[in-house]
Every structure is written in C-alpha cells, then in structure tokens.
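User: Teach me something about this protein's shape.
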Amino acid sequence: MDVILVQQVKQLGAEGDVVTVADGYARNYLIPQGVAIVATKSNLKKVDDIKRRRLIEQQKEIEQAKQLAAKLAEISCTISMQVGEDEKLFGSVTTQDIAKALAKEGLEIDRRKLILEEPIRELGVFTVDVKLHHDVTGTLKVWVVQEK
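Assistant: First, the predicted structure itself:
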C-alpha cells in the first residue's frame, strides 16, 4: 500500500515522502496514529505543498546558520585555566567548557555541535569547528590562558 508520511518516521522516511508499506502496517499503525495518509490523487497534491514548506524551512535554517557562522568568525572565546610546571594545564578544555564560555558571551551553542578532536591540554590559540547545519560549518577561535 502506498502512503504519504505526514511526519518523519524513523527507518521509513521524512515528512511528505510517498512510501510503499505492508497493508497491515499502514491500516493498523501508520494511519490510526496520524503518521501517514493514503496516497490518493488529491493527497498527492498535498505532498507538493508539504515539500514546498519543507524546502522553505530548510532554506531559513541554512540562512540562520550562515549568519551564526559569520558571528562566530568575528568573536573569540577566552578560557582561563590553572597551569602547572612547563605551562601544562591542570585538566583539559572540553567542548562543555567552550559552550559555557560562549554562553557568557551571549551565544547559546550546544556542546555537541562543537567539533574538537581531542581535549585541549595546553595554553594557546586554537580553532574549533562548529557544525551549525549539515551544510554549514563555522569556526571559532578559542584562547586558553593562565588563570591569575
């Protein structure tokens, strides 16, 4: 049976996709849950509207991500850490530390969007990539300085 997904279904498809599923799965689960509708001619016209809406939303998300990437390129984040002999840090700077420092600057960035291959363990200036959207990646300068 062909059905049109009204919302994203894990392992099946995204909103607006026309998928072929078993009759029982469609009648007993997808349609009663309001997750899908039967693929008729009139409903297929609705799919075009859904896809158009989704495309507009994606374009807005990409534009917002580009604006945030430009803002991140202009600022730098400073993190003060305790330092031992040979300027080695006590502990390390992680994505969580960077996210907290950005929150103090007024930017709420999820720590999972910060791409840090390994924690920072020394003083200096580091460039951290920020995955804002699957098409947009920004860069952020992080200064790790000695705590006074």
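Now, about its shape. The chain has two domains: 2-64, 66-146. The longest strand covers residues 136-146. If you'd like, I can walk through any region in more detail.
User: That's plenty for now, thanks!
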